[in-house]
Amino acid sequence: GENVEQHPSTLSVQEGDSAVxxxxxSDSASNYFPWYKQELGKxxxxxxxxxxxxxxxxxxxxxxxxxxxxxxxxxxxxxTQPEDSAVYFCADRSGNTGKLIFGQGTTLxxxx
Amino acid sequence: xxxxxxxxxxxxKTRGQQxxxxxxxxxxxxxxxxxxxxxxxxxxxxxxYFSETQRxxxxxxxxxxxxxxxxxxxxxxxxxxxxxxxxxxLCASSWTSVGNEQFFxxxxxxxxx
Lengths: 112, 113
Fold this sequence. Notes:
The structure holds 2 protein chains of 2 kinds.
Chain A: E1 4-7, E2 10-14, E3 19-25, E4 30-38, E5 45-51, E6 56-59, E7 62-67, E8 72-77, E9 86-94, E10 100-102, E11 106-111
Parallel strand pairs in A: 2-11
Antiparallel strand pairs in A: 1-3, 3-8, 4-5, 4-9, 6-7, 7-8, 9-10, 9-11
Chain B: E1 5-7, E2 10-13, E3 19-24, E4 31-38, E5 42-50, E6 53-57, E7 64-68, E8 74-78, E9 87-94, E10 103-104, E11 108-112
Parallel strand pairs in B: 2-11
Antiparallel strand pairs in B: 1-3, 3-8, 4-5, 4-9, 5-6, 7-8, 9-10, 9-11
């Protein structure tokens, strides 16, 4: 069935360190994998996404990697800053739909 | 361009009542999806509308329904409210339902007493 598992549920790093969040999906037809950042009391905001025909995508300090064989995708944040502190959600989408299946979220704390 | 807007932002209802939430997508976007966010269950897909047609539905009871108008604005309705319906209801819009990023509104915080 449709399922996205996200780990870890909480992550605490020192400012300047890197943070990695991993997700595993179950649907072989999944073809789109977005990552959202949600600050307390605010809406989820798309920070980066990757499609199934690409293995890696970077945007400044953030990158996403996709391993279709293992059905894994990961978010990498380098040189973390206190303003990176938030809840991060991975998601996947299968086929030609607008239905996103979300992971349970990772609370990232960046300590100054 | 204005972002996705949702009204009302906060609602307090009692068990057994019904509620209607509204979502206005980004101008030009034709697809609207709805999600329920709770601390225990996370973000769960409710349904998706495109060109006034429901394209997908999540695993929610029939008390949850929605519709989309010709201007792409969407409403969702929850009848016979239960305590467990207390949640943040988020809508997201995209150009189409295929291959496009979804942008979320601020959500409607529903509290059922």
